[in-house]
Amino acid sequence: MRMLEVLIVGGGVMGAATAYALARRGRRVLLLEQFAIGHARGSSHGLSRQIGCAYPQLYYTRLAKAAYQAWADLEADTGQRLVIKTGALALGAADLRYLRACASNLAAAGVPFESLSAPELRARFPQLAISDQTIGLYQPDGGILPASRCVATFIEQARRYGAAIASGVRVERVMPDGSGARVDASGATYRAQRVIITAGSYTPLLLRSLSLSFPLLITREQSAFFLPRDRRLGNLPVISDFGDDETNPPLICFPDLGEGVKAERLGVGTLVRNPYEPPPLPDPVENDQIARRLNQTLPGYAARLLRAETCRMTHTPDGDFLIDRHPEFGQIVIAIPCIGHGFKLAPLIGEMLADLAIDGSTACDITPFRLNRMLNRQVYT
Ligand SMILES: Cc1cc2nc3c(=O)[nH]c(=O)nc-3n(C[C@H](O)[C@H](O)[C@H](O)COP(=O)(O)OP(=O)(O)OC[C@H]3O[C@@H](n4cnc5c(N)ncnc54)[C@H](O)[C@@H]3O)c2cc1C
What we know:
Blueprint: E1 3-9, H1 13-24, E2 29-33, E3 49-51, H2 58-78, E4 84-85, E5 88-92, H3 96-109, E6 114-116, H4 118-124, E7 135-139, E8 143-145, H5 147-160, E9 164-167, E10 171-177, E11 180-185, E12 188-197, H6 203-207, E13 217-228, E14 238-241, E15 251-254, E16 261-265, E17 270-271, H7 284-297, E18 302-315, E19 322-325, E20 332-336, H8 346-359
Parallel strand pairs: 1-2, 1-12, 2-9, 5-14, 12-20
Antiparallel strand pairs: 3-8, 4-8, 5-7, 6-7, 10-11, 11-12, 13-16, 13-17, 13-18, 14-15, 15-16, 19-20
Bound molecules: flavin-adenine dinucleotide.
């Protein structure tokens, strides 16, 4: 059996970006995906993900700023436009500490942005309902990544640089084997010097054979698309509205790119106990709730529900990513950046994972993402 250099488990955006990073460096890489590339039973499918740098943690703001260059490099390499700059607006009156922390981090990282008062917000965005207490942070470079197209681009480009991509192959087990690893998948056995696990919500099943166990919560989140009442009103930024009342779930709303205004409520996902259970149809009650919440931010803006889709999130106990080598078997690298904001960082995370697999370390600071913090952790924050 031929020894592979690097085997990647999972062809969502993280696995695809990692295959691209490795193949571009001339590494021999095989990516195994259990379903078809672009399927809807993970976290990376769909029309849009937000890109922007407003975070209450400076390390994410810095990473997001660096990610813009990584996307620009991919765009230059492929001739495709992937970052659609619509501007991004974060709004709120309930948790001003959160927005002030974001503002201070944007300033510290040197990201261009404006702080807007309630009267300034009303003048600039008359479509929005703005209470007197509301403040806004506007990042002109914020925007949208066409999610499924980004994954397809990484895969296509990885192939062009020589990566082998196999879909419909389910990895059952990853096991350390000398200085490399053995991978059992759909009746075949592979050996590789390095294995990278980017398996999203399916990761806990693979960690069992690696004697790793820590609590991960998997939720199903729903997005709904609405026909705007008047398409001429479409010139909006991506809006994250934290609202006036902390008991009301925040809303994220994407401008119409031709398929309607996309909206989702944050923090209301339903628990997924078994990642292999067939995804249920989108919940009509949640569609109504999204419509109601959207109407609070943009009164009368949405005319009619067009469609809805669901997507998985994988939550670590402290809400930070996990990106690290296995504590005992350093030839195995694990990444769980599938909390609700990882997509924008995918090209950087792909480089980090490639560094960790090939060099054993990365120049990016992954201190907040280390695996050790997760062991013996039971409590969700
Ligand atoms: C509703 C929602 C909104 C979001 N909004 C944003 C946003 O606005 N901005 C942002 O930056 N991020 C956002 N995110 C987060 C972002 O989408 C995720 O961080 C990212 O998609 C995670 O990608 P992944 O490759 O880690 O996981 P996945 O996309 O789930 O990929 C994992 C892949 O591994 C495969 N796999 C698993 N097990 C096996 C196995 N045993 N054998 C073979 N293959 C296997 C799976 O089939 C899957 O294709 C959002 C996420 C959700 C759910």
